[in-house]
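Fig. S4 source data, part A: sequence.
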Amino acid sequence: MGAFVSDSDRSAGTPGTGPLVVYIGGGTGTGKSTLALALAPRLGLHRVLPTDAVREILRAFVPAAADPTLHRSSFETGDRTAPSAGPLAGFDSQSRTVLRGVRAAVQRSVSEGVGMIVEGVHLWPPLVPLDGLPRPARQVVLLLATRDEAVHRQRFLERGGATGRPAERYLANFAAIRRIHDRLIERAEAHGVPVVDTSPPEPPVRILEELVKSR
């Protein structure tokens, strides 16, 4: 299955040209950060932007009263006045806000003729690839998924020990994390975006590299 290429590339008449921008999406705990850092040197890219970093910057300028979802983790963005709505509505809102910052960073990089990788839970079609960039760019969208639920759960326990992040918080919100995870898969498949399973112990860096280079 081919990667999703933006309409702006095709309308410019130069598909596959210009700086390379790779978007790596996927639910929390699917290995996005690790794989993005491993993939970047293979593609000759030196810029890796996590969407969580963009969210942290935006939080410094947008008060919680103005945008409550921006001040919560992606899996904690459910409407507290309507719990039955689950985490998806708040997550969608947070994603669109974060994408404003992502757009600014990508526009700057593309205008400089420099490629980059953007990784994060907020990257899903049709939010990416981006239209209206200042010059043609080769944009590739990929999605990571951990289809084995037991492996996904275990990953939070391992990450908690390695990074000091409390595993309990992730495990307490595991149902919400899986709902977002599964919705991202649905959106990717509906838009022809490759979904790469990170359940096996061998990291799929080579698979990701081949998918990008095949475009």
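Fig. S4 source data, part B ends here. Residues 9 and 15 are 5 Å apart (CA to CA).
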